[in-house]
Amino acid sequence: MKLKKRFITVLLLMVFFMETIAFADIPAFTVVIGDKGYSLEQLHKGIGSAEIKKGQPIYIKSTQGKWIDTKSGKEVDKNIIPQVTYFDEYGNKVVYEKHDGDIIKEVSEKMYFELFITKNKSGLGQVISLNMTPEGYSEYFNVNYFQLVDKENKNITEILELGKVNYIYPDIEAKKVSINLYDFSKEKIVGIKEVTIKEDEKIFISENKIAENEVITVSSSEELVAALGSHRTIRLKKGKYDLLNYDKKGSCVRYGQVFDGLEIIFSNIVDMTLEGEEGVELYVDPRYANVMNFNSCSRINFKNLTIGHTRGKGYCTGGVLKFDYCEKINIENCVLYGCGTEGLTITGTNDIFVKDSIIEECSYGIMTIDNSSNISFENSIFRNNKEFHGAIINTCNNVKFNECIFENNEAKFDEFISGYGAAEGAVTIENCTFTKNDSKAFIDENYKKCVVLKNNKFEKNSFEIEGTVTTRKK
Question: What pTM was computed for the model?
Fold first, then answer.
């Protein structure tokens, strides 16, 4: 519960941060001196005083978006404003195109961490702290500890607590250090490359200093489960991988009890890619288990994978992929198969993109999406799924199906597309084909305003299309 609360808090911080700095042009009350931009607070603290002494023209942007010459007090044309480099209070470098233009991302630089080291007032040892900026929170919310190491990854300090004042002895003698970042169980997440040490000075650490994701190649179930974690790409050799064949001990993986065994649950993983060679299959045996559960995870990518329960006759009460309170999920060229109850179960999750993939032979329906937004399916196939529902979409926004095929699915007790609580036009189905599907109706009567249909084909279904609402053929 604490982890979920922390994840939600981080999301709120991200929203606040984006709302306060993510402008297309230069923010109001920015003072431009030469080709540099400053906030009024920065100028009050003496930052930029050297530029002021040069006697250059000084311009300030008003809340109405107008530029004022501070010497004359008169408005000037924005075309007089040059390309501006602005450093905010977190050290982020933002470069704006001339004439009060957009951010030039290629030369801008985000700062993720702030390191500060000073002498202990007693003269014995040093005081050290490492803090995350709001940009850092958006990328590394699961970091709790850090450790300074040398270029050979030998320890310079003990593992220290992030966001706290830490006292160390003896003094750090190295002029440059690397930094390992750890989660709450002190499992390493990622490293920061060489940082130059300067006492009594804030050292901002940019995204460019973060080590590239580790690439791990695996060929067995044990190697796969052991490799799971944040900021890494895991490449799977051809073969079948039993996700419950190896008990991983760590912060990001735990196991939940189900009626006939266990299910694997991934929590707080950030930036992980699972990419398979041709012929890679991930599976579990317990029929009551979801094959893979993700809780409070971000930037998870699946490529070239087949995922499901052990094949063969039988009946499942667990689904295939389940996402709770996640974001930025990509599923590409994958097959999600039954007897799992449904291919996708999505709750409180944003930004899912499914492309060139298949959901087939599930025993309850195709998918259920609750309280989520920005969910897209492109060039994907949904076939031979039975028997209670098709796609259930509740209280969602911006759900899109484009160039998808729905074939030979059965929803005996529900409409093919059903749900509640969505806004008008929240679901778009475009350029899709529906063939040999059987359901109570195509769209729930109370849901018709939520669904927009464009250029779709319907052939040999049990329902007829009457605008956006259909009824079963007699």
Answer: 0.75
